[in-house]
Amino acid sequence: MVSYYEKLIQLFWLMRPLNSITAGIAVITATFLANSGNNSPFLINVYLGMGFAAFFTTAQAMVHNDIVDIEADKINYPSRALPSGKISPIEAKLFAFILFIFACIAGIYIDAYISINFPISLFWAFLNSILLDIYNKWIKRSGLIGNLIVAYVVWALFIYADIVINQRLTLLTQSIGLYAFFWNWGREIFKDIMDIEGDREFGLNTIPVRYGAKNGAYIGTFFIIIAIIWSIPIILLPNPIMIPILLISIDFIILYKSIQIIRKLENEYIYKSKRLFMRLMFLAVIIIGLSNLI
After folding, report:
1. Which of 139, 144, 167, 263 makes an SS bond possible with 135, Cβ 3.0 to 4.6 Å?
2. pLDDT tens string 23-75
3. Domains of the chain (ranges plus CATH)?
4. Whole-number average pLDDT of the chain
5. pTM for this structure?
6. Which of 106, 100, 95 is nearest to 27 (CA)?
C-alpha cells in the first residue's frame, strides 16, 4: 500500500521537474530578451505567468509520456512510478489533465492581462499540449520526426516570446531557440540509445533501433554540433567576458561528452551524460538571462 505522501512524491517526479522548470525559465528568459528594447517592460507577474504556462505544458507532456510508455518502461525503467505500480494509470491521467487545465489558466491570465486581440498564450499552451500528446501516442514511433517534435516544442517557447512581444522573429531570441532546439534533438537521440531494448520490443522505430546505437550516437552528436554553431551569435554579443567564457565551457563539455558517448555506448555513461546535459542547459539559460540583465 502506497501512502498519500509517497504518491505525492511520485507525482512530483512524474513531471520531470528539472525539464519543466527549465522550460519555464527558458520562456521567461526569451520574453525578457525579446522585450529588452521595449521602453515599457512587463511587470513581474506577466513573466511568471508565461513561465507557469510553459512549466505546466511541459509537465503535462512528461506525465502523458510515461502513461503511453508504461509497457516499455517495465523493461527500460521498472522502478518508475507507473511501471512499479506506485501510481495507477487512472491517477496519472487525472494528474495530466489537472496540469493541462493549469497551463490553460495561465495562458488565459496572460492574454487578459496584456490585452491582445488573439489569445496567443492560451492557443500556445493548448496547441503544444495536444501536439506533445499526439507525439507520445503515435509519432514517437517514427524516430527522427518524433525527436524533432520534442525539440520543436522547446524552440516554440522562443517563437512564442517573439510573437507576443515583437510580432516577428528576431535573430537573438531565435538563435537561443535554435541552440535549445538542436541541443534537445541530439539529447533525445542519445536517450533513445538507452531505451533501445524496450523500444525494439514494442515496435518503436527510433534512430538507434533503425540504424544501430553507434550510428545513433553519431547523429545525436551531429545535432549537438549544430546547436553549438547557433550559440555563436549569443557568445559574440557585447557581454562581460565571463559570460562567453561560461557558454564556451558549457559547449565544450557537451561536445566532449557527446564524442565520449560515441566511443563508449554504455547505458550508465549515457544516463549520467544526459542528466549532466540537462543541468548544463539549465545553467546556459540562466547565464543568457543574466547576460541580458547585466
Report:
1. 139
2. 888 888 888 777 765 655 567 888 888 899 889 988 998 898 889 888 888 88
3. 4-293 (1.10.357.140)
4. 86
5. 0.82
6. 106
Grid coordinates representing 200 are: 525494439
In order, the DSSP letters of the chain are ---HHHHHHHHHHHT-HHHHHHHHHHHHHHHHHHTTT-SSPPPHHHHHHHHHHHHHHHHHHHHHHHHHTHHHHHHH-TTSTTTTTSS-HHHHHHHHHHHHHHHHHHHHHHHHHHT-SS-HHHHHHHHHHHHHHHHHHTGGGGTHHHHHHHHHHHHHHHHHHHHHHHSS--HHHHHHHHHHHHHHHHHHHHHHHHTHHHHHHTT---HHHHH-HHHHHHHHHHHHHHHHHHTHHHHTSS--THHHHHHHHHHHHHHHHHHHHHHH--HHHHHHHHHHHHHHHHHHHHHHHHHHH-
Q: For residue 129, with 0-12 CB atoms within 10 Å meaning exposed, 13-18 middle and 19 or more buried, which class applies?
A: buried
Using pLDDT thresholds of 50, 70 and 90, give the confidence band for residue 215: very high
